[in-house]
Amino acid sequence: MGHSGMIAALSAVLASGCATAAPDPVSVTLEETRFLAENIVQVVVAVEGVPDPAVIRTATDCAAAEAAMLQRLDFARHVRTAMREEGGIRRADAVYSVTKDVPRGDFILDVAVQAEACRELEEAGVIANYG
C-alpha cells in the first residue's frame, strides 16, 4: 500500500463510527528500540486511542523504519509482533530484519517511503506523540 493509501485507510479506521466529530489522534509512544543483532531490530510501542491492529502495525512499522534509517539501511521486513493490552493501552513488541538490499519474503518496507508516510500521518493528525 502506498503512503497515500495508508493515510486514507488509517483515517477511515479512526473515523469509523464518528460521523459528526473528527476523531482524536492516536497517541503513539515509542517505548524501546534496540538492535538484537546487526540486522535485527526490536521495537516496542504503546498505542492509545484505537484498538485496531492495523494502526498498531503502522506504529511499529514507523519505529522500525526510523531505526533502519538511523543505521543507513534501506529495507525492513516484519518478522513478528506480540501484543498485549493493559488499562486501555495496547503495547506491541515487534521484530524486523533490516538490510541495505531488498530482503526475501513478505511484509517488506522501503524505509524511506515508510518514514515519509509516517511523517504525513503525524502532520495529518492521524497519529500524535510519536517518537
Provide structural commentary.
34% of the residues lie in helices and 37% in strands. By secondary structure, the protein is an alpha+beta fold. It has one domain: Gyrase A, domain 2 (2-Layer Sandwich), CATH 3.30.1360. Helix 1 packs parallel to helix 3. The longest helix has 18 residues. The radius of gyration is 14 Å and the shape is globular. It starts with a helix and ends with a strand.
Produce the secondary structure layout:
Blueprint: H1 3-15, E1 26-37, E2 40-48, H2 53-70, E3 75-86, E4 89-99, E5 108-110, H3 111-123, E6 127-128
Parallel strand pairs: 1-6
Antiparallel strand pairs: 1-2, 2-4, 3-4, 3-5
Helix pairs in contact: 1-3, 2-3
What's the gist of this structure?
This protein has 131 residues and is an alpha+beta fold.
Instruction: Work out the radius of gyration.
Output: 14 Å
Strand content: 35-45%
Number of helices: 3
How far is the N terminus from the C terminus?
23 Å
Total number of domains: 1
Query: Quick one: CATH class?
Result: Alpha Beta
Unreliable runs: 1-9, 11-22
CATH architectural group: 2-Layer Sandwich
Mean pLDDT: 81
Descriptors for this entry?
131 residues; alpha+beta; Gyrase A, domain 2; six-stranded mixed β-sheet; 3 helices; disordered N terminus
